[in-house]
Automatic annotation (TrEMBL):
Protein name: Amidase
EC number of this enzyme: 3.5.1.4
Lineage: Bacteria, Bacillati, Actinomycetota, Actinomycetes, Mycobacteriales
Segments for region (Disordered): 478-501
Domain Amidase, first and last residues per copy: 24-464
Pfam families xref list: Amidase
Top-rank lineage group of the source organism: Bacteria
Example of a GO MF term: amidase activity
Bias type Low complexity, positions: 481-491
Gene3D superfamilies per UniProt: Amidase signature (AS) domain
């Protein structure tokens, strides 16, 4: 029997029933990786010996009658998480030999839950791209079309899931890094509420793994079904035992509803700062029509929605102030000069990004206060609605583009070019206020590429968008495996090779 595309839930049931062993599942997953990953390049750090040993231990535990959430299930982990004895590089060439001595907290939780770790998945340099490529491990290709990106920065994890390399994966998200790869590869991902899942050990080398509360950034689950997302979130959620866990425990409220007909949903298909491509628009409307068909209350506009232009500007200010914290003094001073030369009336996203990179603490506090006003606005909106459905990015997966710097690239939206970074405004809708957002498949484009949407829910009510995702999966369908031998029809940018380097 072919097990590689079965859900984690199905695998757990089969393992408990004795229909398969963890060693058999692991060997089958490894065989598939060895057969198919030469063209996809999703698994950048395999650990097959360690996986087989863990699978053997899982089978022994199953024989003793143990029942842990992920016992015996093959999974992958984003390269940016520390795993003791394996390299953590974040794609940084000078860190290619950095090997941490301790597991990241989330890796420890996976192991405690009984998961079998197959290896680590590819990322972009410093996790700062909507594609996944770096000088150490090369380029990860989209399993649906090898000439296109799998997304970033959790692109290796999304590609691995779509290709049948493990049932689950864990990634991270600051600028859509869970949601965009899921959208591009046709799988599921969940960006948890900010702070719900601790990030210790998901840190750029050689920094020490500390229990830090990151601004904007989260870690979260990826899977091929909505129920598997919820299963993995339950493993990941809960405070760091070195910090908030000293005093707090987690008790997420249940989903607001159990039937599609009871949901109140706001549909947003347009952003004031960037157009929505026709393929993605069709995906949003496919979900909207399914909701209407089931009798849900569906609205297309609401005066309660916080101003999306201001939200995007705040997002860029906060995100870039964080990103620029590590740049050299010389570069920082040059950026200060450039920012001082901006016209005071320039409200473009480019200007917001530049201002963000040199934001003073005084200005950051003011931006953070405005963020709190937006959070209050979202609380008022979620008194009237249960979820918001909107795009993740304006387009399906685009052709590999490794030319020049990020600031010099463009994204083609139905034949018109827009600044590459502007597509992040959709990720920022949930990220800036720290809301949970679940990425789900919503069909395919006319070119046969996956199209996803995000379901945004109320803060700390992660189970609501997850339950909505599960109900929509039953209604419109979910993950479909790409056909083997995916084409490479799209044009490629420089450096977008199919082989490992």
């Amino acid at each position: 029997m072919e097990w590689n595309f079965r859900s984690a839930e199905e695998l757990a049931a089969a393992l408990r029933a004795g229909d398969v062993t963890s060693v058999e599942l692991t060997d089958e997953a490894i065989a598939r990786i060895e057969r198919d990953d030469k063209l996809i390049n999703a698994i950048c750090v395999p650990d097959f010996d360690g996986a087989r040993a863990a699978a053997h231990r899982a089978d022994q535990a199953l024989a003793r009658g143990e029942d842990r959430p992920l016992l015996g299930i093959p999974v992958t982990v984003k390269e940016s998480y520390n795993i003791a004895g394996l390299p953590t590089t974040w794609g940084i060439p000078r860190q290619r030999n950095y090997v941490p001595a301790e597991d990241a907290l989330q890796v420890s939780r996976l192991k405690a839950a009984g998961a079998v770790l197959l290896g680590k998945t590819n990322v972009p340099l410093m996790l700062r791209d909507i594609q996944s490529f770096n000088e150490i491990y090369g380029t990860t290709n989209n399993p649906w079309d090898h000439g296109r990106t799998s997304g970033g920065s959790s692109g290796g994890s999304a590609a691995a899931l779509a290709a049948g390399f493990g049932a689950l994966s864990i990634g991270s998200d600051l600028a859509g890094s869970l949601r965009t790869p899921a959208h591009f590869c046709g799988v599921y991902a969940h960006k948890p509420t900010l702070g719900l899942a601790p990030t210790r050990g998901m840190v750029a080398p050689p920094a020490q793994a500390l229990p830090i509360d990151l601004d904007l950034a989260v870690v979260g689950p990826m899977a091929r079904t909505a129920r598997d997302l919820a299963l993995l979130l339950d493993v990941m959620a809960g405070p760091d035992p070195l910090a908030h866990g000293v005093a707090y425990d987690v008790a997420l409220p249940p989903a607001r509803h159990d039937r599609l007909s009871d949901f109140r949903v706001l549909i947003i298909e347009d952003h004031p700062l960037i157009p929505t491509g026709s393929a993605v628009r069709a995906g949003v409307n496919r979900v909207a029509e399914a909701l209407v068909d089931e009798g849900a209350r569906v609205e297309r506009r609401s005066p309660l929605l916080p101003d999306m232009t201001e939200a995007a500007t705040l997002y860029m200010l906060l995100m870039l102030s964080n990103a620029a914290a590590s740049i050299s003094v010389d570069v920082y001073e040059q950026l200060q000069t450039h920012a001082a030369g901006l016209n005071a009336d320039d409200r473009s996203l480019d200007a917001a990004r530049l201002r963000g990179m040199v934001l003073s603490h005084r200005d950051w506090v003011e931006a953070n206060n405005r963020r709190e006003l937006h959070r209050h606005g979202w609380r008022q909106l979620f008194a009237e609605f249960d979820a918001v459905v909107c795009p993740i990015t304006p387009t399906p997966a685009f052709p590999h583009d490794h030319n020049g710097g990020l600031e010099n690239r463009h994204i083609d939206i139905d034949g018109v070019e827009y600044p590459y970074f502007d597509q992040l405004v959709w990720a920022g809708v949930a990220t800036m206020p720290g809301l949970p957002a679940t990425a789900i498949p919503a069909g395919r484009s006319p070119d046969g590429l996956p199209v996803g949407v995000q379901l945004i829910g109320p803060m700390f009510e992660d189970r609501t968008p997850l339950r909505l995702a599960e109900l929509l999966e039953q209604k419109i369908g979910g993950f479909q495996a790409p056909k083997s031998g995916a084409p490479s029809s799209a044009g490629r940018g420089r450096g977008a090779d199919d082989e490992r380097r």
